[in-house]
């Protein structure tokens, strides 16, 4: 979760100025596909104009130069993709940074190293810079409630309560409640009197070390105010509240790892001036040398009013090569026409299945009915038997077959072998595997019937023979007619 520092001359002098905002290059300089919004379709909480803008950034990429190397630095291109959602538990800055950096360091360790770096640098400076940082911290966490209402409707005061002191604090609050005070008024009075305010670098270090775990030394108490007075008191009785990462933490994180950190901020219609400015890059430069490529984080804002309403998510930066305009023009031409060709192949693939599996066999089966040859009857009867078996197999084995990526193409090739006249696969399978078993089975049934007939008495068998005579006579007459 993040907040922006106020624009003041003192803060600008205390904190090292960040490098110029990263811009994205013209698409002819970078090997990039046609803008495709798909990478951002699954990201929740974005408006259409934000998705379009982020898709354009993804397609074009961004250019970065190491400011430590001056004008001689070579440009590096990066393709930015959303790295997935992270839990909104107050640790999102460090969780997102961990993912963007490749997951080599845990989120809690990142928080501890960030705080350690800040305290080390803060301890070295006992002059103007230190006082300016203290003023910035007071502005963020102990604001002057007599001003600032033109920027925020709600302002917050952060206090730190030792976990070991919570029973004593609760008892003191209850005493005031028993005397007739409202719970929130009593809590405000006790917490302000007995808890630590976040008002300088030392208290900021204690505050930013809190990750909402039982091993934390302090719990965060939040007093929310409107211009009319106290609004609510978040007592955080379960101790799960974590310190939201702010710009001071991001700069210390950048300093610790000697990498610039760029926050790609995307704000909706409640905060943007126009669509072209709904996404912008906010740079954070380390206090010292830059030795590695930058880290990119995505901030999904909920508006300018309501501090702490922003949320960090990782952006995965993939290096991309830079090419000349001539090569880019050729690549764009090839990509455009390859897109048309791929679309054409997709339609062919979709139509080939029904045509080969159903339309052609139906047409050929109708032709076989009118043909005097017995071979085509055998071919298409065999095909429809195998088609029924294949359909039944698909219904039964669907949970397994759907894991085979090319199953549909395999089925089309198999059916083509079954139906095409050059192969006559259906007739082959019927003759090779089915017909022999049927003949053997029918012969066995005939033999069993003969044995059963011979074992019966003449008196019992004579009625059956009499019943068969009319049918045999009819069949013989039909055979005789065909012979004539």
Automatic annotation (TrEMBL):
Transmembrane segments: 340-360, 381-400, 406-430
Assigned keywords, A-Z: Membrane, Transmembrane, Transmembrane helix
Annotated stretches, region: Disordered: 18-41, 444-484
Biased composition (Low complexity): 453-462
Name of the featured protein: OTU domain-containing protein
